[in-house]
Amino acid sequence: xxxxxxxxxxxxxxxxxxxxxxxxxxxxxxxxxxxxxxxxxxxxxxxxxxxxxxxxxxxxxxxxxxxxxxxxxxxxxxxxxxxxxxxxxxxxxxxxxxxxxxxxxxxxxxxxxxxxxxxxxxxxxxxxxxxxxxxxxxxxxxxxxxxxxxxxxxxxxxxxxxxxxxxxxxxxxxxxxxxxxxx
Length: 183
Fold this sequence. Notes:
10 strands, globular
C-alpha cells in the first residue's frame, strides 16, 4: 500500500475563498518557499556570509551573530541544502515546512507594520536589503525589507494564522487584500 500526501498550506483556510484582485496594499503568502537556517562555526563567519550572498536565487536574512536564513523561491530545499552544506564552516537545516513566508506591499506598508512592531523601519534606518529577527504582532519572526514599499515576514508555521489575521486587521484601514502568491 502506497500512501501519498498532498501538501496543504497552514493558511489555506484563512485565504481560500477570499482571494480578491490585489489592492495597492497586499499581503501575499508564498506556498512553497525554501527556507534554511544557517549557522557559522566559530572563525568562519565572514566566509560563510560571503558564500551565502554569492548563491544565485537566494536571499540571505540576518537572524543574529553568525546565523542567517537562506530563502529562495526558485531553488528547492534539497538542492539549496547541498549548496549551503558545501560551504566550509557551516551547519544548515531545512525549515521550509516549519516556516511561513508572507510579503506585504503598498505605499503605506510602514504604517501597517508599525502597528505590529516595536522597531523603527524608517527608510533610512531599515534600508532595502535589511533584515532582523524581532517580535511581529507578539510573534517571533524575521522581517526583511525587499523593496521600496515591500517587506517579507517569516514566522513559525504554528503562529502563521495568528500573525496573518493580526496583519490583515492592522491593514484594514488601507483595504489590505491577501492571497497566495502566483508563483
